[in-house]
């Protein structure tokens, strides 16, 4: 009998209890009323009278031992219960990558433009989007009856009581910053050469379509100093175009007209979408217009208090949307403002 007790001690000690099932099996076998320990108590009657007391004590401590083991195992299982119900971890699954954002393509290209001009000494200047007629038109040598002032083109902020357009408007180009920069010279004791680009948002009253928007972005450039000539303008824009697009890009200057520059030229580059074979973007001509430019009209210099006998300057202005279209093949202006993540994600890491 005592040998059997010893055996059961060993069994209890080595019984594996790692789940609720195993705990239940343990209970049935060593604690339950049909278990082995109860069975031994039954057999106590057969033990000779003189040994019964000692064996009885042994059995009692065996029973205690079994109960002790049961209690310990059930509390430790209880504590690890929450881990039990977690789904199993599959270490062979592929990693879920961190989702990271992308720069908006217009911002990306704006930064590229700033960086290219920054490397050749242009700083960045800014100005208001709500502007007066003078800074947007008057100082830029627009005649009073110029069609650009027309309600069809310009968003006026308010109307005068007699129905005429008010003085405040949403700027139609970033040229207002040219005026503000030059006008600022009056605060300098001597003339400080100006070499700046002016990125910003502009507004025109156009119906929204794939090719036109009422809000878009320009980067304007201005260089005013002694002896600035048309060759400087050409050199700078050649450099920009080659940095921005392929080294073999072709560029041409086409005579044009702007009230604030004289002479004026529009700048075309060889189509970066079809490379000359003809496509809707270049209207099958192989050339795409990217900027307007020219030598600052002496009237504009005078309007800003700069002496045109002593100083000359050039200016240029380009549309950021157009540059982005040619650089990344974006063919619908509306994509820029729709916030479709499928479009925006394509610029991750660009
Ligand atoms: N302001 C002109 C436009 O919006 C662009 C331009 C800027 C042209 C500077 C010449 C010089 O079209």
TrEMBL record:
Localisation = Cytoplasm
Per the UniProt entry, the Enzyme Commission number(s) are 6.1.1.20
Q: Give the first-level EC class, as a single word.
A: ligase
Q: How does it assemble?
A: Tetramer of two alpha and two beta subunits.
Checking SUPFAM superfamilies in the record gives: Class II aaRS and biotin synthetases, tRNA-binding arm
GO biological-process terms attached to the record: phenylalanyl-tRNA aminoacylation
This chain's protein is named Phenylalanine--tRNA ligase alpha subunit
Q: Does the keyword Cell inner membrane apply?
A: no
Cofactors:
Mg(2+)
Aminoacyl-tRNA synthetase among keywords: yes
Cofactor note as given: Binds 2 magnesium ions per tetramer.
| Record-listed Mg(2+) binding positions | 262
Q: Which UniProt keywords apply?
A: Aminoacyl-tRNA synthetase, ATP-binding, Cytoplasm, Ligase, Magnesium, Metal-binding, Nucleotide-binding, Protein biosynthesis
